[in-house]
Amino acid sequence: MDLEARVHSEHPDALRLWLRLLTCTQLVEKDVRSRLRERFATTLPRFDLMAQLERAPQGLKMNELSTRMMVTGGNVTGITDQLVAEGLVDRLTVAGDRRACRVRLTSKGRRLFREMAHEHEAWIVEAFAALNQRELATLHRLLGKVKDHARSRQAAA
């Protein structure tokens, strides 16, 4: 039974929509996690960390990675240790800060990430294949309104 099965027609539409969004997210994420494991013997958190580093060729400090990934520093350290051991990322010293290090993809890591990202993109496109271009654009626009509203509520709080 998924989250959506817990509600009934008498519940507000917003609650039913929220649970549908969560269910869809969980289903797509489960598929992506499974494919990353099967195809690349990796995890979604490792993929996410490498994605952050791909966007920052000069590298990122560990605390920046933690903030961007919205996880604890301990999680980032553990994943980084694994990726360093596999030669996929390097740790670099930060001038003027003995306690900090900058992490960046190695050329090997960059090649692997590009391959994973290409397949990841195809998996996501496949996950939304039930929608035509117009429906995708409409859903994107509507979810953007929800996102903007949520951010404005947070800013006001």
Would you give an account of this structure?
The longest helix has 28 residues, at 13-40. It is built from 6 helices and 3 strands, in the order ααβααββαα. A 3-stranded antiparallel β-sheet has the order 1-3-2. The chain has 157 residues and is mainly alpha-helical. It is 67% helix and 11% strand. The two termini are 35 Å apart.
Termini separation comes to 35 Å
**What kind of sheet is the major sheet?**
3 strands, antiparallel
Average pLDDT works out at 93
Beta-strand content: 5-15%
Number of strands: 3
Question: How many distinct helices?
Answer: 6
User: Level of helix content?
Assistant: 55-70%
> Strand order across the biggest sheet?
1-3-2
Structure characteristics:
mainly alpha; 157 residues; 3-stranded antiparallel sheet; single chain
Can I get a quick summary?
With 157 residues, the chain is mainly alpha-helical.
Topology diagram in text:
Elements: H1 13-40, H2 44-54, E1 60-61, H3 62-69, H4 73-85, E2 89-94, E3 97-105, H5 107-127, H6 133-156
Antiparallel strand pairs: 1-3, 2-3
